[in-house]
């Protein structure tokens, strides 16, 4: 089997697929698409992925898009290392997490990331005219059915965007939901077995960690989530799948822009900064 993964270091969805493939022991060749420079809008790539997002997986001559679908596909073709539980009830619980990611958490992550960091990175890299072209190139149906319009607002207005506080609160509700799910004392989100639910949520928790926002769960705020993420970070494949593909300049941008944004995020969530 030959796999080619079109991906980017900043993409939480690409990180999810890289993590899943590493846990399944699947080798792949990579094509790096710099989504902060607009390479996803190149016509050749749009032939593979009309939404102009990453990741895209090419398996032999078959093209599979959307990270949740890709992970499900990989478990179908390599069932011996399946990350989906065999038990029907546990499988349903896993699907609730992956469904929530697609419907709520991923759009919120796009908003929060642009509000807190990417709007600064794009402005520095592309300049005023480049930013206009970057925003105009986004298909209307992408991360969400109205992502073209929403992204322009988040980039232009930052925390003053009408939906920005609500997206931050929604993100935080999912962190609380994880903490509650882990309150049974289990190490993992479903059935006390590492599964695609943990894989799916990892990039979203890691995004906040990379943006200097561990205060969302540290200092006793969400202790079960804090323990879970410590276990995730200790996994042999975490660094290679989640961190090593993020270029140093982008790692620095996420860290520094996030640190600058953290006081406003904390204010929105009534978190006392320690």
Overall description:
It is a single chain. The chain has helices at 12-24, 43-48, 67-77, 88-137, 147-157, 164-181, 196-210, 223-233, 238-243, 248-268; strands spanning 3-7, 29-32, 56-59, 62-65. The model has no long low-confidence stretch (mean pLDDT 92). It is globular and about 50 Å long. The protein has 2 domains: 3-81, Glutaredoxin; 88-268, Glutathione S-transferase Yfyf (Class Pi), Chain A, domain 2. By secondary structure, it is α+β, with helices and mostly antiparallel strands.
Describe the structure in brief.
With 274 residues, this protein is of the alpha+beta class.
Task: Spell out the blueprint of helices and strands.
Layout: E1 3-7, H1 12-24, E2 29-32, H2 43-48, E3 56-59, E4 62-65, H3 67-77, H4 88-137, H5 147-157, H6 164-181, H7 196-210, H8 223-233, H9 238-243, H10 248-268
Parallel strand pairs: 1-2
Antiparallel strand pairs: 1-3, 3-4
Helix pairs in contact: 1-3, 1-7, 4-5, 4-6, 4-7, 4-10, 6-8, 7-10
């Amino acid at each position: 089997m030959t796999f080619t993964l079109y991906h980017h270091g900043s993409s939480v969805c690409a990180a999810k697929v890289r993590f899943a493939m590493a846990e399944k022991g699947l080798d792949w060749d990579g094509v790096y698409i710099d989504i902060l420079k607009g390479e996803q809008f190149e016509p050749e790539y749009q032939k593979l992925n009309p939404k102009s997002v990453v990741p895209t997986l090419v398996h032999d001559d078959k093209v599979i898009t959307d990270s949740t679908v890709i992970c499900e596909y990989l478990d179908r073709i390599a069932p011996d290392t399946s990350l989906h539980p065999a038990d029907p009830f546990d499988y349903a619980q896993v699907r609730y997490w992956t469904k929530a990611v697609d419907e709520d958490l991923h759009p919120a992550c796009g908003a929060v990331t642009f509000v807190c960091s990417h709007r600064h990175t794009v402005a520095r890299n592309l300049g005023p005219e480049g930013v206009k072209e970057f925003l105009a190139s986004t298909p209307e149906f992408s991360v969400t059915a109205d992502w073209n319009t929403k992204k322009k607002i988040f980039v232009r207005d930052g925390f003053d965007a009408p939906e920005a506080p609500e997206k931050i609160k929604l993100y935080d509700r999912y962190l609380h939901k994880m903490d509650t799910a882990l309150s049974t004392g289990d190490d993992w989100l479903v059935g006390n077995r590492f599964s695609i639910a943990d894989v799916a949520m990892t990039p979203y928790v890691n995004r906040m960690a990379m943006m200097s926002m561990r205060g969302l769960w540290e200092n006793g705020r969400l202790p079960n989530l804090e323990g879970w993420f410590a276990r995730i970070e200790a996994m042999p494949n975490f660094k290679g799948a989640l961190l090593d593909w993020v270029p140093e300049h982008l790692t620095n941008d996420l860290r520094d822009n996030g640190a600058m944004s953290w006081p406003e995020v904390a204010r929105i969530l009534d978190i006392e900064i320690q």
